[in-house]
Design goal:
The protein has seven helices and 37 strands. The longest helix has 10 residues. Helices cover 10% and strands 45% of the residues. It is globular and about 65 Å long. The strands form five sheets. Strands 13, 14, 15, 16, 18, 19, 20, 21, 22, 25 and 26 form an eleven-stranded antiparallel β-sheet that branches. Helix 1 runs antiparallel to helix 7. The protein starts with a helix and ends in a 7-residue tail after the last helix.
């Protein structure tokens, strides 16, 4: 469709199509109260962005590190992670208000979990729980069977025949979290004496022509065009209450091919850690899958020093010189007629752990150093030469809460200058205070409403008539529309 034709059509669209009157998501984001005081400009939505009209030429935008919208046709719609009874598969529950469609069986073990991703189907079948020795030789299979399911909001929990053991799946904006939950040591007491790991096995079936690779202690699926479609992350065992980093333990993941489109995926959890006398129940054994991970991988992460390796996900600071970062897609600002930034801030939710005194960090702009693709030393070099937007940012303290970092005016022209590249990133370098490790909720965190975001208030060159305002330009800017 030609751009002139597109604009002609958009001028005829009703006013309601350009501005939102209600929120359909089940997720209450920190900016949700904006809906009651300002109108959302639907035409400026993207996968991770929302814009609100404050007055005729003043807007406020929120850019999340993870998905908040999914695309249906030419429209960006609110992601709703609620799991509901399926209207298409008799023995399933479903979530279809996302780019990937998820179907959860009413009887785990009899039917697979189904995921429809860009028209392709991925099936995941829970195979079982096993005790293995140090050579990964089978010692014993746990006779585990699942019974009644319970659905609550975005999660489904299956009870089991073993006291205190259940299997939980949580629907996330960019994937699915899986938890084998141990509420007591009943399952662990079944282990033979030489047990080194508890292994959880799933059978994954995917379209013929896709490739599977073991990379950086994660298993990745690539479609026939080589596009990264699924990432089964390094598994983590953790206590529900985390007070030290010893309350978490990273496991191992591997796979064995079963056919040209089927693998057996195994996650391993350290038995010694699980049975430590200091463990506090419940314990979670958590392998998580992210779909279309190229959208979010490394958008948040950390380094344990200027030359340390990069880690994707958690935004962690634990000592002076440690670095974390967050990257935000600000591409929709290009369609707004923006003339100036009048206010900007970073919002991160500190959730682990508490300590006193406060942890202090400086916030730096990363400029054209993309934390997703750049090497570790490029990130640390940029933070040592870039102007700081906030030198006294309280990254964490003795209370879990939102930690807001208000940027100084050095950030305003920098945000404007980064619009053509489509993204803006900030780095955090600990400069003082507590050396106790502290985390901010990142792109893959299970608490979706507390993931990090960027807030930008800006002025535009267009005022008055909403049909001539930025929303119209945004549709033409959208990559989903043919403009040639």
């Amino acid at each position: 469709m030609k751009l002139r034709q597109l604009l002609s059509i958009l001028i005829l669209l009703p006013f309601q199509f350009l501005f939102a009157q209600e929120v359909t998501s089940n997720i209450t984001y920190p900016w949700s109260d904006e809906v009651s005081t300002a109108q959302e400009v639907i035409g400026l939505r993207s996968r991770t962005a929302k814009h609100y009209l404050l007055n005729e030429d003043r807007y406020k935008a929120y850019f999340s590190v993870s998905s908040i919208h999914y695309k249906e046709g030419f429209e960006w719609k609110e992601i709703d992670n609620n799991i509901l009874s399926s209207n298409s598969l008799r023995d399933y529950y479903q979530n279809t208000t996302n780019n990937f469609k998820s179907y959860y069986p009413k009887q785990l073990g009899n039917n697979n979990i189904k995921t429809i991703l860009h028209g392709a189907e991925i099936n995941e079948g829970f195979k079982g729980v096993y005790f293995v020795d140090a050579n990964i030789s089978l010692l014993k299979k746990v006779e585990l069977a699942f019974g009644a399911e319970q659905v609550q909001s975005n999660s489904i929990v299956y009870s089991s025949n073993i006291n205190g053991v259940s299997q939980k799946y949580s629907q996330l904006s960019d994937g699915r979290k899986s938890d084998l939950i141990l509420n007591n040591p009943s399952l662990l007491k079944l282990a033979p004496t030489k047990t080194k790991y508890i292994a959880i096995k799933d059978v994954i079936e995917y379209p013929t022509g896709w490739a599977v690779k073991l990379e950086n202690n994660s298993v990745n699926l690539y479609d026939a065009q080589g596009i990264w479609r699924a990432n089964y992350q390094a598994p983590v065992a953790y206590q529900e209450t985390i007070k030290t980093e010893g309350d978490m333990n990273e496991g191992l993941i591997t796979f064995v091919p079963l056919s040209n489109n089927k693998i057996e995926l195994t996650t391993f959890f350290d038995f010694k850690w699980l049975t430590d006398k200091n463990r506090v129940y419940p314990l979670h054994l958590d392998p998580t899958v992210t779909f279309d991970p190229f959208n979010v991988a490394m958008t948040t992460g950390y380094m344990q020093g200027p030359t340390s390796g990069k880690s994707s996900g958690i935004m962690r600071l634990a000592g002076v010189g440690h670095i974390s970062w967050a990257k935000f897609d600000i591409a929709t600002l290009a369609a707004t007629g923006i003339t100036s930034v009048v206010d900007a801030s970073y919002h991160g939710y500190h959730y682990t752990t508490t300590a006193s005194p406060d942890k202090i960090a400086s916030i730096y702009g990363l400029g054209n150093v993309d934390p997703v693709t750049s090497v570790n030393t490029a990130i640390s070099a940029r933070t040592s030469t870039s102007p700081s937007y906030n030198t006294t940012y309280v990254y964490g303290g003795n209370v879990y809460q939102w930690r807001v970092g208000i940027f100084n005016n050095l950030s305003y022209p920098e945000i404007l200058s980064r619009i053509p590249q489509g993204w803006f990133a900030v780095g955090f370098v600990q400069t003082g205070g507590s050396n106790t490790f502290m985390y901010h909720r990142a792109y893959n965190d299970a608490i979706i409403a507390q993931r990090a975001f960027l807030e930008v208030e800006y002025s535009t060159s267009v005022a008055g008539n909403p049909f001539l305002a930025p929303p119209i330009a945004a549709f033409a800017y959208d990559k989903g529309i043919d403009t040639v």
